[in-house]
Amino acid sequence: MLVAEVQSLFRQYIDEPDQSFVTDAMVATMLAQAYEEFRWTVMQVDDSIYTTLVEITLATQSTYDLADPASTVRVFGADANLTHPRLMKLDALYRTSDSVVLTPLEPVATPQSLSQMTGAFMLDGTLIRFSERRSGTLTMRYFPQYVAAGAAPAISGYVNWAVGGAGTFIDNLSMFHDVIALLAAKQYFILDNAINEMLLNQLQMRVADLTKYLTARAYDGSQYVSQVYTGYESA
Hints:
Distance between the termini: 28 Å
Number of domains: 2
Shape: elongated
Number of helices: 6
Low-confidence stretches: none
Strand content: 25-35%
């Protein structure tokens, strides 16, 4: 589906065909928020759909600040500060050669764990902390949030939900873009202090269909256990 088609479906769901009570600006706001919720739902099942890659270069460093204006790669802070899409979830850090993953770093959650390991990292606020000083280039894989204005990489995947974007492409999950309209309609009925049981039931069924698709779209899909060098990983 395209933006205009989702806009039209949303207005049909809420039975507001014109701007008498729901303006185009309100439609754009509710659809934008619904799309963020849609993307997050997808990410929780299969984070490969929306992940993006960016390279960071280190020079004998134990930290890298992803918000510092002096950093080449900035994915935190105000939109104008971003060089790439905002980081919502850090998925992996690894070295590559000719696009082949060589050495994934081990993610940890606490400074104590970091101090007792080698080849590890943790996200600490806007800082990436490493278990030892590092040099060279690392590839950072993460779930992004694109912004409306800023550096070209930061806006490249932004979807403008304002009315008038009739031909605007959304993403490759077109079979399930009705879920975006349903999520937006849910927000509308919250504002209207109303409950639409039929809509909520349809939303539940379609999210279940989406989840089933995501877990099977690539053979065994995103739900598997794979043996790796350090043990097992669940994807």
